[in-house]
Write a structure and sequence with these properties.
Thiol Ester Dehydrase, Chain A, elongated, alpha+beta
């Protein structure tokens, strides 16, 4: 299946006293890639049946996992973040990431996202269109290693 690649710029403020990107900043990088994926690439608008065709209604993060593989030294060139889906459930999806340059992987991570109905104040199920969109980017964890 397909992966989404986000070119993430590095900012001066991302660097810590040791000259590498601080571990906490990687969560922001993952968020930028996820937002680009879910809000720019996902279908927009409403279907004839009233389904929201994207995640614009909202979602929340239920879990992050991050494995730091190598330090990323601050530089002017962006870093690539590959993103794909490893699991789709009724009311959640797991997104996997690699923050990398070509064959050098700095971080491997995953995020569990939950679609959320903010008006009702509770999680909701994925719509058929959201499931279809996520399905185009689904790979197993084993194929990503």
């Amino acid at each position: 299946m397909a992966r989404h690649t986000y070119r993430c710029p590095l900012r001066w403020a991302d660097m810590d006293a040791f000259g590498h990107v601080n571990n906490v900043v990687f969560l922001r990088y993952l968020e930028e890639a996820r937002i680009d994926f879910m809000f720019r690439l996902a279908p927009q608008g409403e279907t004839a049946s009233g389904d929201t065709a994207s995640f614009k209604g909202g979602s929340v993060v239920a879990r992050h996992e991050i494995d730091y593989k190598r330090q990323l030294i601050h530089r002017h060139e962006p870093v690539d973040i590959d993103l794909w889906v490893t699991e789709i459930r009724a009311a959640s999806a797991t997104i996997a990431y690699e923050v990398k340059d070509d064959d050098i992987v700095y971080v491997r991570a995953s995020t569990v996202i939950v679609p959320f109905d903010f008006a009702a104040g509770r999680p909701r199920r994925l719509t058929a269109l959201e499931r279809e969109f996520l399905g185009k980017y689904t790979e197993s964890d084993e194929s990503a290693a």
